[in-house]
Amino acid sequence: MTTLPVTSGISIDTITGKISWADTVIVRAYNLQITPSNIKGAGTSVGYALTIKAVAPKDLAYSKDSSIRNFGIADSSVAPIINKGGATVTYTMSGNPNGVTINSTTGKILWTNAVLAGIYPLTITATNSAGSTTKSYTLTIKAIVPSAFSYSKDTVIRNFGTADTSVTPTINIGGASVAYSITSSPVPAGVSINDKTGQISWTNEVLVGIYSFRVKVTGQTLADTTGANYGLTIKAVKPSGLAYSKDSSIRNFGTADGSVTPGINKGGAAAVTYTISGNPVGVTIDASTGQISWTNTVVAGIYPLTITATNIAGSTTASYILTIKAIAPKDLAYSKDSSIRNFGTGGSSVVPTINNGGTPVFYSISADAGIPQGVNINSTTGLILWTDQTPADTYTLIEFFAKPIVKK
Prior knowledge:
4-stranded mixed beta sheet
């Protein structure tokens, strides 16, 4: 009889001494000792070297080589079967999106509940010391209707002139890309939404008002929709920056005119009302535009004007100086420029008309032969007077004239 050390899968024919091994013998080098024996006892042992070499793995297979799951469900594949080629096998994977991994020891494929919707052809590679083999696996994650859409702060109040952006909303996107839109109508000028993030933005020019928006989220199909509300209040602030590009005017008396329209930041209010103070008769302001106007009758002078612009939140002021310059008086006339009276009868002329040049005037009288006894003139009104002692005669008064009285 012939014997050898006991090793799993290796045996010897005790009659012939033939050594045999199964295909399950583990890869390694074996030093076998064969000992013959008979009825007289054991003979001398001899050595036999057997080396089992690894081969590349093969027959890698998953009993179910695809999985279809809804988004949001974590799961895993079955473990594959494989002929390991007599050696330890390590599993790797390619083509996998974020959230999909493989157990390098068992070959089991795992995915989290965050894997986005899509069809993912995966390639699994099993490798040992002698080589490798591959297998395909298809993972399909189906999108679901977006849900749980909301803004953590869904109402904001801002002063006019402040550009800003909402918080980014939270949402279960259902595993697929979504598009955000504002469905309420009309959307005021200056308000927009990022169709990828859902953030609502507004410029510093959005008018004062209370705005309620309905934000819609659309998934892969028009049926995959959900929505949330967002409120934006823009408050007016008091007007500012009131200014006339030319903040003074100098005009001659008798010229009607107006200022330029002022520039102003209205503070976001729909309307600003303009008022004026320090204005003489004939100077007014357009309450809607702020343009200052004056007639041709405004008396000569320097007028410091104060313009006030008011909205629902407050007011602001600006200064404007209007100077009306006096001109020489003209067009002096008496509607009846002669008088005939009997001696001993005092009397007076009519009051003359005159363009006084925008300022009070002083009247005087003269004649070539001198002013007759008892004849004089009212220096303020221009009325000519004579007494009952004025001698009988015909008097030609050479000149009536008016001199401006200059205000200082």
